[in-house]
Amino acid sequence: MVELAINGSKSDISNLDKIVKDTIFSIENGKEQIFAIAENARIEYLRMKTHLDEVNDQLVELAKEIEKVREDERVAQYELGEIDRNFQQYKEADIKRAYEHASKMQAYLSSLLERESLLKQKKKDYEASLVKLQETARKADNLMSQVGVVMDFIGGNLKNLNLRLESLQQKQQMGIEIIRAQEEERKRVAREIHDGPAQAMANLVLRMEYCEKLMDVAPEQVRAELGQIKEAVKLTLQDVRKIIFDLRPMALDDLGIVPAVKRYLEDYKSKSRIEVDANFFGREARYTPALEIAIFRLIQEGLNNVRKHARAGRVNLTIDVNDKFFTICIRDNGVGFDLEQVMMNNKGNKFGLINMRERVALLGGEMKITTAPKQGTELYFKIPVAGQEVQAVGEN
């Protein structure tokens, strides 16, 4: 708050004039920014409209393709019906070929319908974005015409306000990144289920139907066919268990953090072809579920970084547990990186380091990163566990 005496000095008036001029400059600068927002909204609207037109064109072409494939699928189903009605007149090879053709047509039609659904959702998102962009431009235009009223706002400390806004923006951005990561994970799981177990089970159904037909005409062949189906079921079950483990390791709930990490390392070594030296020290115990899953995800993210970015041949994992802290060290012999440059880069996900740091901060712990180009990378986590122990491993 500025106080000015009746017979104030020249410097008082000069200071007040500077405040007024600075405020006017800020308002004018704000007007330019509002204008830029409106222009950007209009430009983005045109770009989004182009994408929407492209999606509409794709939907038209896709609808034609779906209609054609549906007709082919109906023909395949008709041929299967003919085989069912005159089963004994067909050779085994012809029967198998007909069933496999029908299965392929069903799978292809299913993939086309799924693509159509995704395009329709994309179209819906674009249309919603267009409405929002129009509203943004309209509000910006209205704000431009009313910006003069802020001339009354000539006092106060705007610096703290800006800092608070930046903090809120960072938290909002973090929330957006978390939501985006969740959606990407859902898409990945959906693709894995669709391309793996879902397709496999559809094929198994057709093969079981084929076995039912064989029971009447060639029962001696059923055993061999069932053996093949059994192996296919085992492979499908392995795929399902892998998906379940990626979502939530069962060993984590049943046995605790250390056994879950050991099982994860077995799968990690086989898939990444990276040698892993794992060392576990201290007394194993069960902790609160939130703490266990948070620690597991830190280890998982750290090792995933090694697999994706480090180009390492070996990684060393050390876990040390005592009554107060859970200490984790992940060290690789990879290419390393310039930490300062990566953290200053506004693009990309910064190898997930921000998310890990936020997670560690929420746990009240500390995180250290030691790296340099061509010198490998070391991640160090120290998480407090005092008061969160549920049960020592081995206790009843």
From TrEMBL:
<keyword id="KW-0808">Transferase</keyword>
<dbReference type="GO" id="GO:0000155">
    <property type="term" value="F:phosphorelay sensor kinase activity"/>
</dbReference>
<dbReference type="Pfam" id="PF05384">
    <property type="entry name" value="DegS"/>
</dbReference>
<dbReference type="Pfam" id="PF02518">
    <property type="entry name" value="HATPase_c"/>
</dbReference>
<keyword id="KW-0418">Kinase</keyword>
<dbReference type="GO" id="GO:0046983">
    <property type="term" value="F:protein dimerization activity"/>
</dbReference>
<feature type="domain" description="Histidine kinase">
    <location>
        <begin position="188"/>
        <end position="387"/>
    </location>
</feature>
<dbReference type="InterPro" id="IPR011712">
    <property type="entry name" value="Sig_transdc_His_kin_sub3_dim/P"/>
</dbReference>
<keyword id="KW-0902">Two-component regulatory system</keyword>
<dbReference type="InterPro" id="IPR008595">
    <property type="entry name" value="DegS"/>
</dbReference>
<dbReference type="InterPro" id="IPR036890">
    <property type="entry name" value="HATPase_C_sf"/>
</dbReference>
<dbReference type="InterPro" id="IPR005467">
    <property type="entry name" value="His_kinase_dom"/>
</dbReference>
<dbReference type="InterPro" id="IPR016381">
    <property type="entry name" value="Sig_transdc_His_kinase_DegS"/>
</dbReference>
<feature type="coiled-coil region">
    <location>
        <begin position="116"/>
        <end position="171"/>
    </location>
</feature>
<dbReference type="Pfam" id="PF07730">
    <property type="entry name" value="HisKA_3"/>
</dbReference>
<keyword id="KW-0175">Coiled coil</keyword>
<dbReference type="InterPro" id="IPR003594">
    <property type="entry name" value="HATPase_dom"/>
</dbReference>
<dbReference type="GO" id="GO:0016020">
    <property type="term" value="C:membrane"/>
</dbReference>
<protein>
    <recommendedName>
        <fullName>histidine kinase</fullName>
        <ecNumber>2.7.13.3</ecNumber>
    </recommendedName>
</protein>
<dbReference type="InterPro" id="IPR050482">
    <property type="entry name" value="Sensor_HK_TwoCompSys"/>
</dbReference>
<feature type="coiled-coil region">
    <location>
        <begin position="38"/>
        <end position="72"/>
    </location>
</feature>
